[in-house]
Structures are given as C-alpha cells and as structure tokens.
Amino acid sequence: MLFLIIADTAVGAIWFKTATSRLPASEDHHNIDEYISNMCKTEKVSIDELAAGSRRKAVSGVRKRVAIESARVDGVALAEIARRVGVLRSAISKIIKRANQ
Q: pLDDT tens, 50-68?
C-alpha cells in the first residue's frame, strides 16, 4: 500500500490510502468475454476487429448488442464494456441511451 499526505493541518496530516494494484475481475466480466466470443462467431466478426474499434456495420452491430446486454442484464460498468469493445465510455453510454428511446 502507498500512503500519500493530502493536507498538513495544525491538527495533523490527513492520510489517504491508495491501492497499488487493480481489483480482480468479477464473474460478470468473464460473462462479457464469453458473450463477445459467441456473438463474434455468430456474426462472423473478428474479436480483434471489435477490440480495435472498427466502424464496419457488422462490428458496430455486435458492439451495440454487447453493450446493451452487458449493461442491462449483467450490470457491468460502462468503462469495462468500453475497454472490451474498443470505444470510449461515452460511446457505450450513447448506445444504451439510444436503445432506451
């Protein structure tokens, strides 16, 4: 663990603890990988192409389905979905927002 002094007051220093490593992925995140793999096989889209952020129509369709399924059903964070499908978190937010309309 790493401790940083954030403020030094007359009473004393205020300490904050920061993590030195990331938390392990939850089981939901493993479901994303399985879902992406199955969807890519079904739609004949390369996982690498999806992760690279391709804008090809078939790839965008897979990305949309993965985003909606992962966020709504599995409750996965938008940032995690974005990392897996090669776009920004804001793009995932827009996909979900459009699907709700």
A: 999 999 999 999 999 999 9
HSE-CB at 21 with a 13 A cutoff on CA atoms is: 3
Give CA–CA dist 20/39, Å, rounded: 35
Q: What pTM does this model have? A: 0.69
Question: What pLDDT is attached to residue 19?
Answer: 37
Q: Which of 16-20, 37-41, 72-76 has the highest mean pLDDT?
A: 37-41
Q: How far apart are CA 6 and CA 67, in angstroms?
A: 37
CA gap 36, 41 in Å, rounded: 9
| Nearest to 80, CA basis, from 19, 17, 35, 16 | 35
User: Three-state DSSP class for 16?
Assistant: strand
Burial of 40: CB neighbours in 10 Å, binned 0-12, 13-18, 19+: buried
